[in-house]
Amino acid sequence: MTTEYDFSDICPYDDSVFHEKMQNLVKEPGFLHALSFCIPKEAVEPMIEELLNIDNKHDFQAHVMFPFLQMLAKTTTAGISIGGTRNYNSSVNYTFITNHRDIVLDASFLNLAFIRKGMPTTEVAIGNNLLIYDWITDLVRLNKSFVVKRDTGMREALMAAKKLSAYIHHAILHKHESVWIAQRQGRAKDSSDQTQESLVKMLALSGEGTFMDRIKEINLMPVAISYEYDPNDYLKAREFLLKKRNPNFKKSQRDDLFSMETGLLQYKGKVHFQLTPRINARIDEIGEFKDNNIAARYVGRIIDNAIHRSYEIFPINYVAYDMLHSCNRFASKYTVEEREQFGEYLDRQIAKIELEALTAEELDYLRHLLIVMYANPLINKLKALLGGME
């Protein structure tokens, strides 16, 4: 039962406290600095006035976040598209589970695509490791986000997982809200997307009936996200190299902030979201398992297969595949010019990596990593189409 939990520390802010929280937010120096970074300085005061006249999350998204995301899409993408909407039923609330490419924009652009189609936005799961300042926590909770508590002790982690699971079930069944969650904690640095079994197990900690009943209760709908270009690709390659140099290397909060900024403001090319059927029917075909670990593994495979089959493949992915395998298998999918442009793109991205004493071997390693990142969506799609669930 979800009623045993107090969700007030993780759920989106209720509209009854929206104005109070917004009044506090617009006084925060950090928020004001971020605002002036995103819009012209002369527009800051009028924006603050507009924010103070809003008293609910729906209007905040419609009148502030939607125009901002529209601007961001116009200036940093070559268009955002969405397919598979025939799989969406307006009378059902879903848990949209997606691959994870960008820290901020995966859910934001999905919600933008929903708004454009006249569909309701989702509540968004966001890890507290990204909520570096209190004002960031307030901002995301004003924008229909709920908090995933990480970096806790083992006992606390189990309690947090149970509470998170209970909240997701509560949002679907009682609040009648859809939610978004990534298929794994952290982005797939090599763009080879795999669902974490621990995440599936978390989703099944709450609800009624068997393990599979509890999964079906929240209507999991896999969504494939495809970015033509990943602005953070060189930062991910840099992290791989630093871990190769020092296995104990860990990113700092400053690294996360820079990744968020880069993902937000730099060019992404075309962005596509593909909705796939909810997995309940597939679960019914598989049936029950005595071992929940095996059950979670199979649910993860269903999600992965749906996402992999549904990637939008761009010319850059075909080029990367052929470069990785030293072949011309997909030469008909791109031009000689596009292949040359991809090579030049790799050079520009590698040039952004500011590390001392990069050797020729390390430069080759970085280039290989970037090629793998862009080849993997196609590699996984081919495996899914040819091999089914294997």
Largest β-sheet summary: 7 strands, mixed
Number of domains: 2
Question: What gross morphology would you assign?
Answer: globular
Radius of gyration: 21 Å
Spatial ordering of strands, largest sheet: 1-7-6-2-5-3-4
Low-confidence stretches: none
How far apart, in Å, are the first and last alpha carbons? 36 Å
SS elements, strand count = 7
Proportion of helical residues: 40-55%
CATH-defined fold name of the largest domain = Glycerol-3-phosphate (1)-acyltransferase
CATH architecture of the largest domain: 3-Layer(aba) Sandwich
Mean pLDDT score, rounded?
A: 94
How large is the count of helical segments? 16
The CATH H-level homologous superfamily of the largest domain: Glycerol-3-phosphate (1)-acyltransferase
Proportion of beta-strand residues: 5-15%
Helix/strand/pairing class, anyone?
Answer: alpha/beta
Please write the string of helix (H) and strand (E) elements.
HHHHEEHEHEHEHHEHHEHHHHH
For this structure, what is the CATH class of the largest domain?
A: Alpha Beta
What distinguishing features does this structure have?
alpha/beta; Glycerol-3-phosphate (1)-acyltransferase; 16 helices; 7 strands
